[in-house]
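Exercise 7b. C-alpha cells:
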C-alpha cells in the first residue's frame, strides 16, 4: 500500500459521529480507540466535518499517551477550504484539536469548485512545510482523477477514500483498477453501509454463510474487504466490542466457493456505474 507501508495495516478506525454524545459515550469511544491502538490498529481516520471538529477533539484526547510516530492520522478538509489560505487555516485548526504538529495523510473530502491544480499545489506546500506527510482525495471518481492527472503533483496523490462494501461494488469496474495502475491507495469507508451499520440488506444465503463460518454478518462483510490487501477499511470505532470483532475479522479465510456466494448475492459490476457517496 502506498501510504505508510511501514506502519499501516489494512484495518483502521473511523470516527464519523464520534465525540458527539455525552461524557459517558465519549469515554466509551476513547476506550475503544485506545483498545484498538493497544492491539496494533494504528490508523485513525477523521475529518473537520465530523461533529464540526468534535471527532478530532476526541481523537486528540485518545492519543495523548501514545508515541505519535507509531500512529497514522488521517483527516479531511471541506471543498470550500481547498484554496491555499483556507486550507492552511483548516489544517492548523485540525492539528490543534488533535494535539499534534503533523498529519500522516490529509484529504480533500470531496470535489468542489476550487481548481484541483490550486488544491494540489497548496497540499504540496503543506507537505514541504512538514505539516502533512502525504496527501490525497476522497469521493473522487475516474473522471475527477483524470481531471487532476495533468497537474504536476498528481503523482503525489497517495490515496482516494471512497464508499466501498459488498453492496457498493461499482468502483470495481474502473476506479479500483485506476487506483492500482496509478499506485493510489484505496481507503474504504462505511464497510457496513451508513447509519447504524445495518443498512445493507443481507440475503439468507449470506446469513447462512456467516453461520457456517461461525462469524457475525458484520465480520463476514468486513473480512471480504480485508482479504484484499491493497484496500484499507475504516469501520467506525465506537466500542471495544466492535473493535475486537473487527480485529477478529482480519483472520477470516475465504475459499473460491465462498467468494462465489458473495458474487451471487452481490454481483460485481459489468458496466460503468456512477460513484456512490455518503
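Sequence design result:
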Amino acid at each position: 500500500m502506498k501510504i505508510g507501508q511501514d506502519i499501516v495495516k489494512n484495518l483502521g478506525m473511523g470516527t464519523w459521529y464520534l465525540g458527539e454524545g455525552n461524557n459517558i459515550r465519549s469515554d466509551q469511544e476513547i476506550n475503544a480507540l485506545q483498545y484498538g491502538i493497544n492491539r496494533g490498529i494504528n490508523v485513525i481516520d477523521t475529518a473537520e466535518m465530523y461533529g464540526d471538529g468534535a471527532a478530532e477533539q476526541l481523537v486528540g484526547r485518545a492519543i495523548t499517551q501514545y508515541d505519535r510516530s507509531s500512529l497514522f492520522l488521517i483527516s479531511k478538509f471541506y471543498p470550500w477550504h481547498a484554496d491555499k489560505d483556507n486550507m492552511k487555516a483548516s489544517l492548523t485548526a485540525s492539528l490543534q484539536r488533535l494535539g499534534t504538529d503533523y498529519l500522516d495523510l490529509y484529504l480533500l473530502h470531496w470535489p468542489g469548485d476550487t481548481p484541483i491544480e490550486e488544491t494540489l499545489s497548496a497540499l504540496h506546500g503543506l507537505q514541504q512545510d512538514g505539516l502533512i506527510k502525504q496527501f490525497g482525495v476522497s469521493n473522487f471518481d475516474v473522471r475527477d482523477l483524470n481531471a487532476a492527472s495533468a497537474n504536476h503533483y498528481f503523482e503525489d496523490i497517495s490515496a482516494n477514500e471512497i464508499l466501498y462494501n459488498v453492496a457498493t461494488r461499482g468502483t470495481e469496474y474502473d476506479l479500483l483498477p485506476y487506483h492500482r495502475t496509478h499506485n493510489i491507495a484505496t481507503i474504504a469507508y462505511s464497510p457496513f453501509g451508513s447509519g447504524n451499520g445495518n443498512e445493507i440488506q443481507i440475503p439468507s444465503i449470506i446469513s447462512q454463510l456467516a453461520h457456517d463460518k461461525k462469524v457475525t454478518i458484520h465480520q463476514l462483510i468486513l473480512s471480504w474487504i480485508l482479504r484484499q490487501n491493497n484496500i484499507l477499511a475504516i469501520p467506525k470505532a465506537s466500542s471495544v466490542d466492535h473493535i475486537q470483532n473487527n480485529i477478529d475479522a482480519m483472520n477470516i479465510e475465504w475459499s473460491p466457493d465462498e467468494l462465489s456466494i458473495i458474487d451471487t448475492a452481490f454481483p460485481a459490476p459489468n458496466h460503468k456505474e456512477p460513484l456512490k457517496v455518503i
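Instructor comment: The mean pLDDT is 95. The beta strands are 13-14, 43-45, 72-77, 103-108, 132-138, 157-163, 185-189, 231-233.
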